[in-house]
Fold each of these.
Amino acid sequence: MSDLVSGDGRTHIQSRLMRESLQDRRVLSKTVSERDLQIFPDVSLVSIGGQSIFDRGKDAILPLVDELVAIKRDLDEKIVIGVGGGTRVRHTISIAVDLGLPVGGMAQLVGAMEELNAILLNTLLAPHGSMPMQRDHFWDLPLYFDAGITPIAISVPPYHFWEPPPDEGHLPMHGSDFGLFQLAEVLGMKQVIYVKDEDGLYDKDPKRHPDAKLIPRITLPELLASFPEENILDQELFHAWSSATNLRRIVIVNGLVRGQLTAALRGEDVGTVITKPEAS
Amino acid sequence: MSAERRTLESTLSRSNLTGPGDKYEYRPTAVMPDVKVVKIGGQSILDRGRAALFPILDEIVEARRTYGVQVVLLTGGGTRARHIYSIASELEVPTGVVATLGKYIPMQNARMLQMLLAKHGGLYILPDDFEKLPLYMQMGCIPIMSGMPPFGYWEKREEGSRIPPHRTDAGVFLSAEFLGSRRAIYIKDEDGLYTDDPKKNPAATHIPRITAKELQDKGLPDLVVERVVVEYVQRSQWCKELQILNGLVPGQVLAALRGEDVGTIITG
């Protein structure tokens, strides 16, 4: 039984946080523990790039769809798929910047562009068993997996009009790379695999610098210590990952090379493997 | 590799949008700068019930009816939010789940306010109704919504806490910032900022005006408003002031809605 407590003009319910200020660091620290409940630890999240894959059209998309179908048939791996929006997102934001729309307005707009790619992908995968998943219908996931249906998740996080002012500049900080990372983090998933059009993470953009070097394996603290200026993934993702507790492994693979995604799902070290060591 | 990226030419078409460094001109447009975004505190006001709430609502209705002030009300959570946060923390559920749980109580509170204000045009709205605000304002309504921003499962974990850093104070600030409103107004049960928690330390003194930076530099273990808001107000485009006032003192709410500096003003 809960007890109601009054006497100061307010009616409280008895709890450890009763009457406390939730801004008080001393109070907040009592809510932390070393671990988080991990909800779906045997699931991998596969993120398919917008610019890198979808904007290339049929020649890049169809082979990857074939590979996803083969993975579904041959591997006993639970996956959730998400997609990026690509060049249409950049176009949207360019126009929005010119119009002077608030950052929250930009954040509200961009999700639609990603959704187009999600619908396209589902159109191709549906005959093999896939379904777009509603925004936060995570509790349906066991049903999807039992039924052999691959869910396609919404990748842009629902910050919408409430997108916080960015650290620098005027563009929203929470894009699809971050959104899918956060989905995997909050659900305690095994890994996120970002499917791009490069063999992984380089010390600089390999499209502009022929001498760029591939980083096959790195830890998150090492990466943050020497962060490449041009990165294939959202910077915000790495900030969020460093204060997160669940996710241990992010892999970046080349979706234009058949077999890399399959290998990553098998747990092999392909592309770039970024790991986060257990809390030290 | 025959498949080339097919790119739409635009200012940012070659940007990877992964961080700063892009060059572009930005001249911001305010969406609804005349709207006052007002928070009704959960623990501080709503948990006090009728005695505290009714006089505040009277002043809000007066501001709307007599002075034509455009008001959007956002609600806090209060003790029921603390109760569910406390149990969720024991169960070690991730912050994103805690943030999702945190949505429900401010929603209840918003619905309570709607029932009380219905006869004066009180309208319960959801984040998705935000684009209909111009209509509601023109009709003379008082839209009421939960103060919790819609981040939910996508709320990031913060070092040293399992409680979501963006709660209803953040939702109020971010709503004001999006709308292009200069000041976010927080109705609480204290006259704003003190040198210490006046409920626990009677020697605490009132601070009428302070910059967010000064406040941050004090390095206080506790704050009257969520930490993220004190951080954001320093780099916002429009919302440059946070006003925290005591709704238990008659006249304060009306004065604040008419633009007077009552309570504490924290400037960005």
Amino acid sequence: MIVTKSWLNEWIDLDGISTDYLAKTLNSIGLEVDRIQSYSVPNKIIFGRVLECEKHPEADKLNICQVDIGASTRQIVCGASNIRAGLDVVVATIGATMPDGTIIKPVKLRGVESDGMICSAKEIGLEDTQDGILELDSSIGEYTLGQEVSENSTLCDDLIEIELTANRGDCLSVRGIARDLSAAFDRPLKDKSVEENEDKRVGIGRILSLSHEPNLHVNLRYKAVDLKDLVLPCIVKLRLAQIEEKRETDIESVMLYATHSSGVILRAYNYSFFCEDNNTLAKAHLASDDNGYASIMAKEKASTVGIIQEDVSKVTYDEGTVLIEASYIPPDIISRKMQEVKMPSGPMYYRTSRGSEPELDQGLDFCLRLIDSNSNSSLYGGNIELGNDYEDTVISVSKKEIDKIIGADIDKVKITNILNNLGFSTTKSSSDKFVISVPRYRHDISHKQDIVEEIVRLVGIDNIPSKAFCFTEDNRLGDDYLTYKKRQSYRHKAAFSGFFESVHFVFDEKKVLQKYGFETLNEELELLNPIVNTLDTLRSTLLTGLLKAASHNSKNGYLSIKLFEIGSLFNSKREESLKMAMLFSGDRESQNLSNAGKPAKVDFGFFAQKLSDIIGDFKLREFETSHSLSHIYQCAEVMIDGKPVGELFRVHPTVEDDYDLDVTYMCELDFGKLPYGLKTATNTSKYQASFKDLSLIMPQDMSYEKVKTTIESANVNNLVRFYPVDRYSDESLGENMSLSIRFVLQSSEKTLEEEDITSSMDSILESLQSSLGIGLR
Amino acid sequence: MNLLREWYDAIKDAQSVEQIEEIRISVFGKKGVLAEQFAKMKTAPNEEKSKIAQELNTHKSALMNELTARKITLQTLELKEAMKAESIDVSLFSSKSEAGGLHPVMETMDRIVEYFSSMNFAVKTGGMVEDDFNNFEALNLPKYHPARDMQDTFYFKDEMLLRTHTSPVQIRTMMNTQPPIRMIAPGAVFRRDYDITHTPMFHQIEGLLVDDEGKVSFANLKFILEDFLKYMFGDVEVRFRPSFFPFTEPSAEVDISCVFCKGKGCRVCSKTGWLEVLGCGIVDPNVFEAVKYKNVSGYAFGLGVERFAMLIHQIGDLRSLFEGDIKLLEQFQ
């Protein structure tokens, strides 16, 4: 909602109130100031009057004007199409520095001297009215020829843009905001009512009749005018530019201006639209349309109340009879209706769905006065009206209840004053109890808490002292907190292991998920209104997001990319689960002196090692995954305590190509299955450990898993652990390879003797020979 | 004895530990000068023997002292030389951490959760896919409410939706437990908006406190939020502005003095000197009615984690937070 200081001043006296103080007050009463813009016009730009205006002999589009600037007359060449003699204009005189930096100098235009410039609104730093030079009139207040424009407070105004909350439809007008300010400043609204002499006018009843269906909850009020020579006043054009709205015709502009000023929804109708053939009596009928919307009907629909006006009923002429309608419909009726049956809405729907002004006469009067004083139109007398009885909302609340909610002692007199200034009427049923009747424009107020809110905002929250809350203690460390801590602990471990945490949208592109063989949401559970087609479904994996991010980083020149994410994803039934995924692409570390600028690339073992740094011990077993992101021969299932928790794989070479990536490894793990809890310590030996290597000759296609299981099941004395340390194959070995395994032997009872060690190693070899048929080199 | 004199000079002149060792052998060795002299002593007249022996012993210990001292000196010098050979240009090794880093939004979320859990708020989470009742209806947002515009919410074909705030977690918690309640709900939320200042997914933390009727006041809400904002942003001014939310009444928006310009007015705060950071209020009775709570009072508040992270770390572009961009992330190593 945009207002300006001079515009507000038409409704409430703001004398002595600075713009800063005004903005501060608006903020403190809950009308949030979003933007303040001050219009200022540079010096040496003054008011002038065009005395003569002749065509330039050498240029079609130029005019030579003699301009009265108070003390003297200047000859100025002007190219605007709306220049003419008799016009009051804004003149930039020699030496003026325009807002765009241009300095005005005497010039010759096609041989004719020009001593200054006649300006448009935009050229002097005001909003762009988009209609040539600014045509001045008395709507901008008093001015004299030769006076500096910067002295005019209506042109050099301060604009305030207010971000309104959805409940405050009553503040969607300049008058509405002035009404709130009147409570804040304790100053009355200006009285705008004028005694009209209607004796000589033809009554509207002679040209219009209104009929209606019952129970549509609509208030209507009509006036009529024979429109002639309507000229929009300068200030109306400027202010419409300030609120960044534009209408096709002058009469529509007047409606918009009057609505923005008063809050009343106004429409102008083509009179003949309501007249049947050759009949001069217009007939309007308020009826419910096929969808149950209250509508104004003639031979066809003229408008839907509170929603939209049909083009066919709009005024397309400058001269002729025009019906002007003010309407009110309770906002919940139309927004409820809109929920049931959607229909296209016009620009006023924003106001009507939040609550427009129910005091129709003040909006209608404002509008007609504006037409009357800026045209040669004649008004019809009286009005045609359809009223509705509304029951006032009455709320009773005690001072004690108010104090308890606020947490402070609020003075009774203050409460009464605040409510009365806001237009609520209050009576007291007992010394402590307020009975409050709510004005109709405050449809948002329905119970005690709403009243407390009004008191809070006008007392000012800053004036309420803070108090600590005393709470009954209870254990609040539930499961959700522990999951949160687990997640935090894994995130920290991943970060310390060199991975960057990334966060992606839980949306993904269905096409991409399908391309790589991931499951997608069942069609009937799919998103109804995705925002873009690259985010048209919920993700079923974290992998695609990480790949995209890695690709982005690779293009940015990163040679070593380490990313992880812990996040939610969804299966085809749209069940949510938490997973952790990691990606390692390219170099193991950054290029530096120690690696001579050529760090090794990540490989399967290195990546598995990194993963182990984060999630602890795990085993890998061969695995065939269901998606096609994975390299077919480098893919493993990650097992913890004998249970699968996820997969680890090299990215398929063609996928690496798709994403412009160097060699890349990824894993995705079920976060719920990752261990979290206290570790238990086992007794450790105090005696020396011995290391022994065995180099086994075995077939190249024999899995280490087999070797491992065989050794483990042999229950070898004093064997603490063993691990592969070297793998070698050459032609001499043929189909075989040599695998060196290091064994660590230790006893908790003594330092092992040579024969103990030999006996252990022998039993290992024995079992390998008997189970797998492999032995030493 | 002049024969021994020259060894004093030899020790003095020795230039390496190796030479000293040679001298030691020549003087103290089995066939060394001293051994030779002691042997000669046997042939000397008896009355001179003790004098010679005394003299030889004096030289023996003096030479040993000289030799040891010189050896230590030379050893020290040699070690120095050896270390000099190992000298490096340390400036070549000004290094950058190889560690990864936490995402600034998640890290900010951690700090916020840390504050509230130390104030004994429980942490509660819930699913992202929600139904209309928990996301809107129970929160006093009836079907026809303007804030429920189709444009703001992601819907599914089966009338479920992606939660637009974490408030459904509060509703579910209230439906499952009895007051008193003190909880926060952190998590991702979704709005159908995508431009420079909006992403379709962002993170929120919402808080809720419920106790007996008449016990929880606006003043209590003010207390905890002022304390929390000072914990997060340090020495800032906090301002409450009346506002409107369907689920609270009275409601307020909370501003802090701009952390960039210290309240003087800059581009970030649109020249106002204030930054909006929180929404809050006293829980609307319609919300309690929806979860069938009677005779209770409570306060609630909510904040956007991205907004906090961007203010704390002075991050300019919201969308960059969701791209896994190492250029951004490595600044938080």
